[in-house]
Amino acid sequence: MKEDLLKIIKHYGVNAQQRQLAEEVFELQEAITKTEDVYEKTVLFKDYLSNLKTNIAEEIADVTVIISQFIHYYGLDDEEIYKIADYKIKRQLERIKNEVKER
Q: How far is CA 73 from the centre of its chain?
C-alpha cells in the first residue's frame, strides 16, 4: 500500500495533492454538516440518513488516503503520529474538564 500511495503523490505532485487534500476535507465537512442538519430536525427518513452516513464514510476514506500519501511521502512514522494524537486527545479532555469546573 505504501508504494501505491507514493506512486499516486509522485504522479500528481505534492502541490496538486495539497489542493486535493483541501478539496477532500471540504467535502467531508459538507457531508458532516448535512448529517447534523438532519439530526437536528429529527430523523426524517432512515434511508436518507443511511445515505448521509455512507457519504461521510466515503469522504473520510478520501481524506485518509490523501493524508496517508503525505505520511509516506514525508517518511513520517505512524506510531509517532498516534502518540501525538493521543497526547492531543488527552490535552483536549483536560481542557474540557477545566471548562466544566469553571461553569
A: 18
pTM over 0.70: yes
Could you tell me the three cell numbers for 4? 501505491
Between the alpha carbon of residue 62 and those of residues 17, 56, 77, the distances in Å are: 12, 10, 20
**Coil vs helix vs strand at 66:** helix
How far is residue 89's CA from residue 75's CA, in Å, rounded to a whole number? 23
3-state helix/strand/coil string of 69-97: HHHHHCCCCHHHHHHHHHHHHHHHHHHHH
Residue pair 52/43 in contact (Cβ under 8 Å)? The answer is no
The pLDDT tens digits for 53-99 are 888 999 999 999 999 999 999 999 989 999 999 999 999 999 998 88
Are residues 26 and 62 in contact, defined by beta-carbon separation less than 8 angstroms?
Answer: no
Separation CA 78–CA 80 (nearest Å): 5
